[in-house]
Specification:
mainly alpha; Ubiquitin-like (UB roll); 12 helices; 2 domains
Length: 275
């Protein structure tokens, strides 16, 4: 049977246990001082930090268990983040993002954006992707998003990681939001939240789908077409979405030689956003 190693730093003890054993059970046996208020993960008290390894095959199998048919072409990273002690089980390969995704989707309201928001939240909370706290929304707006998409899930166990959108780029974010909302599909608040979230993701430096914490570029393409169909229809050459969005901003200002995927390093930045 596969074994897993777990270290309790408060008592300086490392134990080898069968993979799949609940961490809370091991903690009680060795006398570690983990604090928790329930045994089902509902209270959010027993949050622990973890480091683990996950190979490509492990991540792919996990994604298939979460939702058959979903592609999973994310880069393979050493996972780090937080997970509830009472829910966590030791394993040879740990995928806490998939675990949190499943928890969110178990309470999904059935909306078209449930899946992508669950991916983003799970990635953000487990240290993946590059999203700022609350996915770039205000805490109040994030709570509304959670209630709208994941009924009665609450936000008590959601903890900010200290990531913020640079203040100097907030005007840029607002320009992107306005661009996406010009022809949004319908009046659902989900479309408005999505515009703000995508705009916040554009402030990072990797591919947009990776920065958002999505599991494939196909997810990003689908959400753009679903939420902002008129805008997405202009991407006839299947450009990378971040570059496409900035190209639209440049052309709106009469700049037709946009060559960079981020306004921050563009020499014409002052033309679009002032001095």
């Amino acid at each position: 049977m596969p074994k897993a190693k777990i270290t309790f730093e408060d008592i300086d003890q490392t134990v080898n246990v069968p993979a799949g054993t609940r961490v809370i059970e091991i903690s009680e046996k060795v006398g570690a001082g983990i604090i928790y208020g329930c045994r089902e993960g509902d209270c959010g008290t027993g949050m622990m930090h973890y480091q683990g390894r996950a190979g490509a095959d492990d991540r792919r199998r996990s994604a298939e268990r979460v939702a058959p048919g979903l592609s999973d072409d994310r880069p393979r990273r050493r996972p780090t983040g937080r997970v509830l002690t009472v829910c966590a089980r030791t394993a040879v390969a740990v995928d806490p993002a998939a675990h949190l995704y499943r928890a969110l989707m178990s309470r999904a309201a059935g909306g078209s954006n449930d899946h992508v928001f669950a991916c983003m939240i799970a990635s953000w909370q487990t240290g993946e992707g590059s999203m700022p706290d609350w996915l770039g929304l205000s805490p109040a707006a994030f709570r509304c998003l959670m209630e709208h998409h994941f009924q009665n899930s609450g936000t008590e166990a959601i903890v900010p990681l200290g990531r913020e959108t640079p203040e100097a780029r907030l005007d840029e974010v607002e320009e992107l939001v306005r661009l996406m909302l010009i022809d949004k599909a319908g009046e659902s608040p989900s479309k408005v939240w999505m515009a703000h979230v995508v705009a916040a993701g554009c402030m990072a430096t990797d591919h947009l789908w990776q920065d958002l914490g999505l599991w494939s570029r196909k997810d990003l393409t689908a959400l753009m077409r679903r939420n902002f169909p008129a805008l997405a229809a202009l991407n006839v050459k299947d450009m990378k979405w971040k570059r496409f969005l900035y190209k639209q901003l440049c052309e709106a200002e009469g700049i037709y030689s946009c060559r960079v995927p981020s306004c921050e390093v563009c020499t014409d930045y002052h033309v679009c956003f002032g001095s």
